[in-house]
Amino acid sequence: MKILGIDIGGSGVKGAPVDTKTGKLLRERHRIDTPETLTPAAMAKTIKTIATHFKWHGPIGVGFPGVIHGPRIMTSANLHPRFVRCDAVNMFSKATGCRVALINDADAAGLAEIRFGAGREIKGTVLLLTLGTGVGSALFHGGRLFPNSELGHLPIRGKSAERFVSSTARKRRELSWEEWGGELSQYIHILEEILWPELIILGGGVSAKHAKYFKYIKPRAKLAPAEFLNEAGIVGAALWAAERK
Ligand code: BGC
Fold first, then answer.
1. Whose CA is nearest to atom 12 of ligand 1?
2. Which of 29, 142, 151, 231 could form an S-S bond across to 16 if both were Cys, CB 3.0 to 4.6 Å?
3. In a 3-state reduction of DSSP, which class is residue 158?
4. In this structure, which residue's CA is closest to atom 4 in ligand 1?
5. 2-107+232-242 carries CATH number 3.30.420.40
6. What distance in Å separates the CA atoms of residue 125 and residue 42, rounded to the nearest whole number?
7. Rounded Cα gap, residues 69 and 88, in angstroms
8. Mean pLDDT throughout 127-144?
């Protein structure tokens, strides 16, 4: 099946048509930078622009950085507050004229890794963390997704963990790779005490730089960098739309 996968992020929206049988992009991805925080209406227009770029009329899968309940977005920690309780499936399908399926962005990245990447063929519990503007999480067992795990909001020192261990936090706090890796390691230990995953996959922009910080993380589970790098969210959103048809 061919599905347009779209990944909504803190600084841009990107998309590409995906072959959901292979997990491969069929065209080069198209990215629109969003230097200002977009309202839901402006986001719908941006998604329409991406669909038009690919002359797209088929199904679309969209990943969003928030909790998703059916067609609605329930939280928006790093994007416009007006997304909260917004029926994004309705808005985005009206804007594009296409069938739209909506999934949390980290859950989307996790699906790509479980089906075609670092987590393929792993039957036990797999935890994927995306380290970007925020910290996203995706939890799988037997290849099945437990949606909206939101482990980036685990409270640490009275705040969401993502305030300390996201990639943005590393830059904002001017931490060395060793300092940041150490804090990430402590956070991962807490998650391991609770979830006992067999495999932990680290994704997000920093996964390309894993050589700089993996050595400071000492997990009980196996640790692997995401294989999809920047494309996991696009591929996974498309897979979600294919699996929900
Ligand atoms: C959001 C999650 C999202 C993560 C990564 C968090 O702030 O609450 O839903 O997956 O950021 O984008």
1. 65
2. 29
3. coil
4. 136
5. yes
6. 38
7. 10
8. 96
